[in-house]
Amino acid sequence: MSQLTPRQKEIFRILSRNSDAVAGRQLSDLLGVSLRTVQNEAAGLRDMGLIRSTANGYLLTDAAPQRLAELDRTAEPSSDSARLLHRLLLTPEPLGLGELADAFYLSETSLRSRLKELDAMLTDTSLRVCVQKDRVWLDGSELNKRRMIRDRIYYEISPGYANSNQYSRFFGELDVQRLRGMIVDSVKANNCFMQGSYAATLILNVVIALFRIEQGIHCPPEEQQTPPADGIEMCIAREICARCERHWGMPIEEADCNYIASLFYGQIFQQTGKNALPSSEAAFEACIANILTEAFEHYMLVIDFSEHIHSIAMHIRELIKRGRANNYVINNMHVNIRDYSPFIYDVAVFIAQRLDHEFDIHIPDDEIGFLSVYVGVVVENAIQETDCVRTLIISSGYQNIAGKISDRLSETYGAVLEIITQPHSSGEQLVGFVPDLIISTQPINVLGQEVVNISPFFGSMDQARVDTAINNCLKKKETRRNNNYLSSCFHEKLFFRDNTVLTRDDAIRFLGQKLIEFGVVEPDFIESVFQRENASSTCFFEKFAIPHSDKMNAHKTMIAVLINENGIQWQEHSIKLCLLFAISSKDRKMFSKVYSGAVHALCDDVKLGRLIRSQSLPEFISVMKQ
Q1: Taken in order 212, 215, 216, 217, is the CA torsion positive or negative?
Q2: Which residue would you say has higher pLDDT here, 500 or 197?
Q3: Which helix (H) or strand (E) holds 527?
């Protein structure tokens, strides 16, 4: 989204989360700007082919994802600071200030100001912008510079990241496509393969290393892990280096070969015909099984994961290798998993914390995203709680049409439906049966009821309409149940509107102290919330946060609410609503529903806006239940 203004990005995000049109006035309220400003920003998005206007508001175009990818691929860094970083990273020698100022059409005074801004941006990266006399360069370890090059490429061209054509322009005359083929061939030649999810990052890291070598910049031995000389990773690295020396005359040193070998740690797999772990690693598999058992028992999940333990253990083994080589996979998949499957992500965070404790390895969010996929496969079935849709079939008694439709539905949906049939001509009252769904073979309309009118033949189009109606009923029932439970967890003494709480840490301490004073939690609760938050952020959709402790030892399940309409700085995002969860041990099984239910309720931008404007807890709960 690098070519969009901040407001345009926000409008795009809001529309992407809503299947229905969003009115300009709603966008105006959500963004806190005038309707005229929204219309101006929307005009720009419309000109780019990203949105369209309807009588009811704005919608994303069908081609929006493709158009956004095209815009990102052609985008240049959007600010002077980003463009300066790009130049300094890809230029091996110090640059002259005068030459750089001319290239950017800046005075030397303005250039020095931009360089100071860039230096401030790099505070957390271990890189510094150095200016001495009339020369400027980027100071820091070669390893950190390579990581920064990778991160900038990923930032500027995502989501077209997996295609090496997209990042060829960063490497001058280097034939990236040919290099990519050579890397893939070298891996195959050693009877190995790269999983698709790892391949993009791995190939890019190797290309960056070879690009730096071609520039005459080598990775010092002290900055890398020394790999086993007889390991498969070293065999692949030697083959790549030999080909580069032969075809391009690259001056490759032993330290370069070691570094390239380290890039393959935990990201390649040997073709063995099956994915079983070697018997020598049975103890490792047992260790991982114990960690999974602890995690599932913590959330009161009854899961038989025996058929999945091999693949999960193999993934974690390679994850540990990547971690020890400081060579993690980059993938933003974790954002979608955290936002749309928050409970599964939370279970993965718990497991990541236990792996950190067991193997002394920090697992970043991107890797937690991959872990969530493996965990989700076994957790999803365990947390499914199917409601029963009470269904009334109204049809003519002719040729037993109602019975045939009932049999078809029972065969398809089983216990999901509780079915009663009634002839059209019957005036009989259904005592004690209030249907969630009415299916009729004659046109009817019942106020306040979900009604599907179908043909007596119950064809494929009828089936599709019934499918949609049943799913709507199930969704409404789940939402109603979750909202009712959520509402019982609030208290007027734990509802706060306070514009003086400005940061994440202040918000957690403020609400944590209120919960302590209310007698819900013990004093160590606040520290346990910070531990969970530091493992992976609980900020969702860049709009709201739901921090919590993973210990779940509160005396009673309660939710403390903080609203700051001026914004709370939650890492790099500004949010206006924070819900601090305190979960009791007896409610651990409900956590998946409560947590996911809260996230899904708050991801409705219109509802979130109304919640933030709520002046009292009854008003807040009323909006929450809608």
Answers
A1: negative
A2: 500
A3: helix 525-535
Question: DSSP states of 453-480 as a string?
Answer: E--TT--HHHHHHHHHHHHHHHHHHHHH
How far from 208 is each of 193, 214, 299, 302, CA to CA, in Å?
A: 20, 10, 43, 46
Cis preceding linkage at 221, omega within 30? no
Which residue in 388, 409, 417 sits closest to 477, CA to CA?
A: 388
Which residue type sits at 98? G
Residue 321 CB contacts under 8 Å (≥ 6 apart), including other chains = 265, 266
Cα 585 to Cα 234, 251, 300: the distances in Å are 49, 61, 10
Average pLDDT for 456-483: 82
Span 10-46, pLDDT tens digits: 888 888 777 778 888 888 877 777 888 888 888 888 8
C-alpha to C-alpha distance for 177 and 164, rounded to whole angstroms = 7
Token digits of residue 105: 């059409």
* Rounded Cα–Cα distance for residues 380 and 519 (Å): 34
d(CA 353, CA 530): 13
By the 10 Å C-beta count (0-12 exposed, 13-18 middle, 19+ buried), 399 is classed as exposed
Residue 107, phi then psi, degrees to nearest 5: -75, 160
**294 contacts 266 by C-beta, under 8 angstroms:** no
Q: Residue for token digits 């390893």?
A: 143
Helix (H) or strand (E) holding 422: strand 417-423
Helices (H), 428-578: 460-487, 504-517, 525-535
236 HSE (CA, 13 A, CB side): 31
Q: How many CB atoms lie within 10 A of CB 496?
A: 17
Cα 144–Cα 147–Cα 148 angle in degrees, nearest 5: 85
User: CB of 229 within 8 A of CB of 257?
Assistant: no
Position 58: which residue type?
Y
Among residues 186, 179, 260, 177, which one has the least CA distance to residue 218?
260
298/292 Cα distance (integer angstroms): 10
For residues 317 and 277, give the distance between their C-alpha atoms in angstroms, rounded to a whole number.
Answer: 10
Section 572-584 average pLDDT:
91
- Tokens coding 250: 């690259």
User: One-letter amino acid identity for 535?
Assistant: A
- Cα separation of 365 and 357, whole Å? 17
Q: Are strands 135-139 and 95-96 parallel, antiparallel or unpaired?
A: antiparallel
**Other CB atoms within 10 A of residue 270 CB:** 10
Q: What pLDDT, on a 0 to 100 scale, did the predictor assign at position 159? A: 44
Q: Higher confidence at residue 523 or residue 446?
A: 523
**Cα 162–168–174 angle (5° rounding)?**
130
How far is Cα 238 from Cα 92, in angstroms, rounded to an integer? 25
